[in-house]
Amino acid sequence: MKLTLGPILYYWPADTLRRFYEAAATWPVEVVYLGETVCSKRRSFRFDDWMETARRLAEAGKEVVLSTLALLEAESELKTLRRICGNGEFLVEANDMAAVQLLSKAGQPFVAGPTLNLYNPRSLEVLARRGLKRWVPPLELDRQTLADFLQALPEGVETELFAWGRMPLAFSARCYTARAYDLPKDDCQYRCLDHPDGFTLRTQEGQPFLAVNGIQTQSALTCNLLPETAEAARMGIDLLRISPQAHHMERIVEAFRRAVAGEEPPELEKRMPAGGCNGYWHGRAGIR
Predict the structure, then answer these.
(1) How far apart are CA 246 and CA 238, in angstroms?
(2) Nearest to residue 223, comparing CAs of 131, 170, 288?
(3) Burial (Cβ within 10 Å: 0-12, 13-18, ≥19) of residue 49
(4) DSSP alpha helices (H): ranges in 129-260?
(5) 228-283 pLDDT, tens per residue?
(6) What's the Cα-to-Cα distance from 94 to each of 55, 82, 230, 262, rounded to whole Å?
(7) What gap in Å lies between CA 22 and CA 281, rounded to an integer?
(8) If DSSP codes are grouped into helix, strand and coil, which group holds residue 51?
(9) How far apart are CA 213 and CA 279, in angstroms?
(10) Helix or strand or coil: residue 36?
(11) Where in the chain are the domains?
(12) What is the C-alpha to C-alpha distance for residues 121 and 23, in angstroms, rounded to an integer?
């Protein structure tokens, strides 16, 4: 199995992004996803900055994939989407059907991101005829359902499992972070910069429940499928996705490298913002 570094889901300053990807160029990941997938107001990097970063990572031997927004709301966002899909150098991860339409019309292969909500093999067959190269299953699919998918997978289509990170659960036209600060979305003052891993919501009993990340709602707990690496390999999973967080990334990547190599990985419980979960994998509530 290959290891992939997913797109950064949070709003980080430009200097932080540069340092992160300079370090990532040396990590044992084969594929790196770049780009903004949550909010178009996050402009620490613009299109040219992402392309420059992509070329540097490619020179370091990484396969680079450019990721697109999951929720499009304005013509300006469609304009950026067209530039990404027509970049002419790198594979694109489509996170909504507008990207699929642009890429398939241009005859370009693409990755289907987890927000495309592909829940049956027939959907994969339709997209495979339009250029699907790789898909990331919806995060709530359990291992048995995924095993059934793999038995009916179209020829040549790879499967990439979301194996680490706070899970994206929902998107909204409203910005929850701005609302938490009693600010309108159009004047959010970029408060997401204050929360490099989102901010955690807890129940009245103090249990971590959700994480707020702009217009995106995430799980508060980190999906941790490190202990399931061997089973995922036996099932035929091709790639494991590690979703970036603000701290400990080098150690997290190294733990997965060791697991993929059949070695005993270190415990990662202390590397999570609010603890871990793997309930969806086992067909239970995701928070378990």
Answers:
(1) 26
(2) 288
(3) middle
(4) 143-151, 176-180, 229-235, 249-260
(5) 999 999 999 999 999 999 999 999 999 999 999 999 999 998 999 999 999 999 99
(6) 20, 12, 28, 32
(7) 33
(8) helix
(9) 22
(10) coil
(11) 2-167+221-282
(12) 37
On the 0-12 / 13-18 / 19+ scale of CB atoms within 10 A, 18 is middle
Q: How far apart are the first and last CA of the chain?
A: 26
Superfamily of segment(s) 2-167+221-282: Aldolase class I (3.20.20.70)
Strands (DSSP E) found in the chain: 2-5, 31-34, 63-67, 91-94, 110-112, 132-135, 158-171, 199-202, 208-213, 216-224, 239-242, 276-277
CA distance 88 to 208: 43
CA gap 103, 67 in Å, rounded: 13
Q: What is the DSSP letter of 287?
A: T
Q: What is the pLDDT of residues 133-177, one digit of tens each?
A: 999 999 999 999 999 999 999 999 999 999 999 999 999 999 999
Q: Is 171 helix (H, G, I), strand (E, B) or coil?
A: strand
With beta carbons less than 8 A apart as the criterion, state whether 223 and 139 touch: yes
DSSP structure class, residue 7: P
Rounded CA separation 240/259 (Å): 11
Tell me which amino acid residue 123 is. S
Which residues fall within 8 angstroms of residue 249, CB to CB, at 6 or more apart? 20, 23, 24, 27, 242
